[in-house]
Each structure stands twice: as structure tokens, then as C-alpha cells.
Design a protein that fits this description.
CATH architecture of the largest domain: 2-Layer Sandwich
CATH class of the largest domain: Alpha Beta
Structural class: alpha+beta
CATH topology of the largest domain: Ribosomal Protein S8, Chain: A, domain 1
Strand content: 5-15%
Number of helices: 10
Mean pLDDT: 97
Radius of gyration: 20 Å
Length: 352
């Protein structure tokens, strides 16, 4: 049986490593919580797998250890921060809390962040907001990185530009986290490292030919990922990618028109309080009925039943909180040199 680890022990371990590099305690706690939440939900390329890269960024000074964002604009329902390359998960958690306070008063609130560092798994932020009866929209892009071609092109312009959202029903919340590219950079790197291929022609080589080989993105010259929809309907993913660019870099006033500063991100946080619109009870009545109608739809051949977005992740999260988190192979070994450097012991498996 694979080794499993108590979630709280993984969080404590990650937090201790971050504090050992000099990150302020509150920021280290937020980053550790969000990374482990990604693993709990099954997003294993965007959980603790990111921790070694984060620690390396901190060590070389590319991720700041302390401080607060700079307020660039502050209106009742709209707030813009310069994140100053502070830890992304901490910035997003702070932005969500501020947006919630304002949404309760004004119905909706938006926080735009420029120059955040990487924010990890978007889905990891959503469940607590929906469980408070609110609707949240979260998106990000990285203007210093490009790995996705516009539809019809063969060189990269964009990042995968995920768009995530969650809202309550009378049962579990609906949680979506979708990249505007056909896959993520994290999965591409993992498949390339393991010598595996994409399940389909998800990329283009340098000549613009579709391929299922992740190595195409690491060739010289490199290939590129396709937008969501691939060679057939990629114009839809391309259009949504442009929307994400406008919502993130556009609203933040900082992006691809500016010099690159390294791995990071521009972020959009929006929170809506249904109580200020048609009413909280009516909102749940509507979302619950839509969820019921989807679940009651007869499944087509090959499907056991119709599921809602986020359902599998929430089930996996509950199971892993009960029996332990099963980390993807190689994650702990990639963190081990950092633990040795700072004299910290990795958590012990709870089933070993």
C-alpha cells in the first residue's frame, strides 16, 4: 500500500521549511495550507510538488519573505494591489478575505493583484468561500511566461491561464478549475520527466504539427501547448484565454506589455454575495435544482453517472483527511534535500 501522511503533519512540515528560509510565520502557514489542500483535492502537480521550486525562489530572492502589498487603487467594490512578489497563496487568501468583507456590504467585490508570486492550485482556495454562502471567481496569468499558442499560431504567447469558480448548493458546492490551455505546464513537465506521452495531440512541435509528445516543448526550438479545444475547437480556448488576460493583466494594469520579472502572476479575485441580489435562499434553490437536474440525467454508455465539477475532488479530500494523504511518487524525495539543509525531519507515514 502506498505511504500516506496526515494532512496536518504535511502542513506543519511545509510551514517549518518555509519559516526556516525566513518567510514570516503567517505567510508560511498560508502557503503550506494551500499546497497541501491541492494534494488533498488530487491536484498533485500543484500541491507540495511546488514546494522545492518555491523554496528555491525564496533563496535566490525572487519571492519576498515579508511585507504587505502596496495599495494602488481603493474603491468600495474594487481594490488593486501591487503584490511586490510576495508569496502568492498568502496574497490570494488576504485578497479573498478582503473581498468577502466588501461583498457583504456591496453585493460584489473585486481585488486585482499585479506582481504576485505563483499562487498554486486555484481550486484550493474555493471550498471555504462557497461554504460561507458566497460565489467566488478566481483567475490568474503569468506575463513572464509563455507556453500556449493562440489558435492558428505555432509559437507560444500565453500561459495556461486558469479560470476557477465555486458556489453553494444545498449539498456540496460546485467547484470548477479549468485551464484555458488543453493541459497545464505542471503535467507537461511531469510527463516529459517520466518519458510518457499526452493522451492525445495536445501540443504542437516547432513546425506547427500536432503531437502527443511533451518533449516537443523542451526541444530547440520549442513547441507549444494548444489552447483548450485543441486543433478542432481551440478557438474557444483561445477566446477565453484572451478574456483571462484582460481580467488579470488588463485590470491590474501590468502584464505582457511590461518587462518580465520572473515566475509569478497577475490575479483576479471576485466574490459575490447572493443575499444582495435575488436572495441567498433563492440562489441556493436555483443552484440546487440545476445540480439535481444534472445528476438525474441518464448517463451515456461508458459513464456510471453524471457528476458535478469538484465532486471527485471533494470526495478525495474527505477520504485523504480520514486515511492520510497519498503523495505522488517523488514529491517527498524532491523536498528531502531542503529538509536536510535545515535539519528538519520529514513527516512519518501513518500507515508505515
Amino acid at each position: 500500500m502506498p505511504a500516506c501522511f496526515a494532512a496536518e503533519n504535511l502542513i506543519a512540515f511545509a510551514r517549518a521549511l518555509l519559516v526556516a528560509t525566513g518567510v514570516e510565520e503567517e505567510k508560511a502557514a498560508a502557503v503550506a495550507q494551500i499546497l497541501v489542500e491541492g494534494d488533498l483535492l488530487g491536484h498533485t502537480t500543484h500541491g507540495l510538488a511546488l514546494l522545492p521550486a518555491y523554496l528555491a525562489e525564496i533563496e535566490k530572492g525572487s519571492m519576498r519573505k515579508a511585507g504587505a502589498p502596496r495599495v494602488l487603487a481603493d474603491f468600495p467594490a474594487a481594490l488593486t494591489w501591487d503584490g511586490l512578489r510576495l508569496p502568492g497563496p498568502w496574497l490570494v487568501v488576504q485578497a479573498i478575505e478582503e473581498a468577502i468583507v466588501r461583498a457583504r456590504q456591496y453585493g460584489g467585490a473585486t481585488v486585482s493583484i499585479r506582481r504576485s508570486h505563483h499562487i498554486g492550485c486555484l481550486a484550493a482556495y474555493l471550498r471555504p468561500v462557497a461554504e460561507r454562502g458566497l460565489l467566488i471567481v478566481l483567475s490568474c496569468s503569468d506575463p513572464s511566461v509563455s507556453s500556449v499558442a493562440p489558435f492558428g499560431g505555432r509559437t507560444d504567447v500565453f500561459t495556461p491561464n486558469p479560470l476557477a469558480a465555486a458556489w453553494p448548493t444545498d449539498g456540496d458546492p460546485v467547484i470548477i478549475d479549468v485551464s484555458m490551455s488543453i493541459t497545464t505546464n505542471g503535467l507537461t513537465k511531469r510527463l516529459h520527466t517520466e518519458g510518457r506521452r499526452f493522451p492525445g495531440q495536445w501540443a504542437l512541435d516547432a513546425q506547427g504539427e500536432p503531437t502527443d509528445d511533451p518533449a516537443a516543448l523542451y526541444a530547440n526550438p520549442p513547441g507549444t501547448l494548444l489552447p483548450m479545444g485543441g486543433t478542432d475547437h481551440g478557438h474557444k480556448g483561445y477566446a477565453l484565454t484572451l478574456l483571462v488576460e484582460a481580467l488579470t493583466g488588463g485590470l491590474a494594469g501590468h502584464g505582457r506589455a511590461d518587462p518580465g520579472e520572473g515566475w509569478g502572476g497577475n490575479v483576479l479575485v471576485q466574490v459575490y454575495d447572493p443575499a444582495c441580489f435575488g436572495g441567498a435562499e433563492n440562489f441556493r434553490r436555483q443552484t440546487t435544482e440545476v445540480a439535481r437536474a444534472c445528476r438525474d440525467t441518464p448517463p451515456r454508455p461508458g459513464f456510471e453517472r453524471v457528476r458535478l465539477p469538484g465532486e471527485s475532488g471533494l470526495r478525495r479530500r474527505a477520504e485523504q483527511l480520514a486515511r492520510g494523504v497519498e503523495l505522488y511518487p517523488g514529491i517527498l524525495s524532491s523536498i528531502a534535500p531542503w529538509a536536510e539543509k535545515f535539519g528538519l525531519n520529514p513527516p512519518a507515514a501513518i500507515n508505515g
